[in-house]
Every structure is written in C-alpha cells, then in structure tokens.
Design brief:
Blueprint lengths: L6 H7 L1 H26 L4 H13 L3 H11 L2 H11 L5 H19 L3 H33 L4 H64 L14 H11 L1
Length: about 240
C-alpha cells in the first residue's frame, strides 16, 4: 500500500510507472538473453586451437574443417574461414579472418544497444513521472482547498516512487551493459590471439608444401615451328 492507494491503483494512476514496468521487463529479458548467449558460446579457445593445430600439422585439412563446423563456437567459425582459404596469401587470409572477427563482434553486441538505452532513459522517465506527480498533487490541493503537511507529503511520496523505479531499472541495465561489454572485449582479444596463432599454422603449412614440391622440374619443351611458318616469317622480315 502507498498511503491510501494500492499498488494496482498506483500503477493505473501513473502512466509513467506503466512505461517503467515495461522498461524493466525489457531490461531483464535482454539481460537473460545475452547471459544465455555468452554462456552457450563460452571459452575453450585454447583447447580448440590445440586440437586444430594437431590436425593441420598432420596435413588433414578436411578433418580440421570438420572440427570447425562441428564445434560451432565463435573461434571455430573464425578459424573455419582460415582453414577454407589456407592456400591464400597472408594478406588475403588476414582480410578474411578480420572480417570473420568483426562479424562475431557484431553478434556479441546484439541487443546491447537496448540495455544502454534503458540505462539512460529510465532515470529520465522516473524524473518525469515525479514532476508530473508533484504537479498533479499540488493541483488537487489547489482544487479541493485542503492542504497541510500530511497531504503534501503523501502526494510527493507517491510521485517520488517513479524516480525510485527509474533508478532501479537504470542500475540493472547499467550493470548488465558493462558486464557484457567486458565479456565482448575479452572474447574479441581471444579471437585476435587465435588469429595470430593460426598464421603460425599457415606458415608451417606452406613450408610443408614447399618441401613436398619437386625440387626441379624439367623445362617445358618448346613446340617446333612449322617450316612453312618459318619461311613466311623470313620473307616478311627480309
């Protein structure tokens, strides 16, 4: 109970509280969604890279690609691009891996904008509801002609509830936003480290290919020029 008003009556009398309730549901919902995403696409980068290195050093490129496809983690999706284009130059491979990392970062940042927006607008909505509530309280006092400290205090306390609700929503959204931003920075750094490790595997692969190539190849035989063509060329040049 808030004074003489029940919780339902207070929500119905304050449209701002309804908006803040919706904001709180959105904030909690997207926080849970992002938490489940980061939990499902967790670590294991070092273990994965160790297994991938073993298969590539053995020269089993198909098995390495199957490992990336089966794992399905962000680092596996990035490394799949590298395995598919293992024969490309370093510049081309770097471009493809950087693009894959950027795509994974975009996926990790999905819905974070909503949390950032909630952390910014929730206190403003709460303050707006408080201002509107105070204006309405003083308007009711002026209309009815009944004043006094108790009446004013009741109206102000009810109006300040929107500010409290806005702060609570903002705190939850801000904590979740900062936590997920930290997770993104950490995982992006792990992906970049895996990229540098893959270039070491790429260099070893190309060294093995050069060793496996024949040391010398017989020069290509020059096709003999027909006598008629040779006579015609001699006539033209003379």
């Amino acid at each position: 109970m808030f004074g003489e008003m029940s919780l339902v009556s207070f929500f119905l009398a304050s449209p701002t509280m309804i908006v803040l309730a919706i904001c709180s549901i959105v904030t909690v919902g997207f926080t849970i969604e992002r938490a489940l995403y980061f939990r499902g696409s967790g670590g294991g980068t070092r273990k994965f890279m160790g297994e991938l290195a073993g298969r590539l050093k053995a020269g089993d490129q198909r098995s390495a690609l199957e490992l990336c496809t089966r794992d399905g983690s962000p680092v596996a999706r990035v490394m799949a691009q590298g395995v598919r284009h293992l024969s490309r130059s370093r510049e081309e491979l770097l471009q493809r891996l950087d693009t894959a990392i950027d795509l994974e970062t975009v996926e990790m940042e999905r819905n974070l904008g909503v949390l950032g927006t909630m952390s910014n607008i929730a206190p403003l909505l709460g303050l707006f509801g408080t201002v509107v509530g105070i204006i309405r309280a003083f308007a009711d006092i002026a209309r009815t002609g009944s004043g006094g400290g108790a009446v004013v205090a009741m109206g102000v306390s009810e109006a300040l509830m929107t500010t409290a609700a806005g702060i609570i929503v903002a705190v939850i959204a801000t904590v979740a936003f900062n936590f997920f931003v930290r997770q993104i920075r950490t995982r992006t750094a792990h992906l970049e480290d895996a990229r540098e490790g893959f270039f070491t595997l790429w260099a070893q692969h190309h060294a093995q290919m050069r060793k496996a190539a024949p040391v010398g190849r017989a020069p290509a035989q020059t096709r003999a020029v027909p006598a008629e063509v040779e006579d015609a060329l001699s006539t033209i040049l003379s």
